Amino acid sequence: MDLLAVLDDAVAALKAHLDAGDRSQGWTDELRREIQEEISTHRSALRRHGRWTARYLSPNLDRWMADEGVLPGRLHDLVADVQRRFVEAAEPA
Fold first, then answer.
1. What are phi and psi of 25, to 5 degrees?
2. Would you tell me how many other CB atoms lie within 10 Å of the CB of residue 44?
């Protein structure tokens, strides 16, 4: 799956309401919206300017989740995958 498809899936998942499991892992509606907006903004930049812009986008989503005390789970894994794919896309081909 390419980077834009992963970002599309992440944005869609983060737009959905949180369930009890997500909340118990430390997610709040505000954090969910903020991370969704960050991913959406980066996705738009990639669509407009091309994949090469990934090297200039450094979302630091993993650190953000750690700072907020988010525990591993469904959304954490999804956002961590987005972070990993941004790092991979930024590496020279």
1. -90, 5
2. 11
The residue among 49, 26, 30 whose CA lies nearest residue 38 is: 30
Distance CA 51, CA 41 (A): 14
What is the rounded CA–CA span in Å between residue 70 and residue 9?
20
SS3 57: coil
User: What tens digit of pLDDT does each residue of 59-88 get?
Assistant: 789 999 999 999 999 999 999 999 999 888
What token pair was written down for 62? 């993993």
Kindly report the pTM of this predicted structure.
0.89
∠ Cα 69 12 20 (to 5°):
45
Helix (H), strand (E) counts: the chain: 5, 0
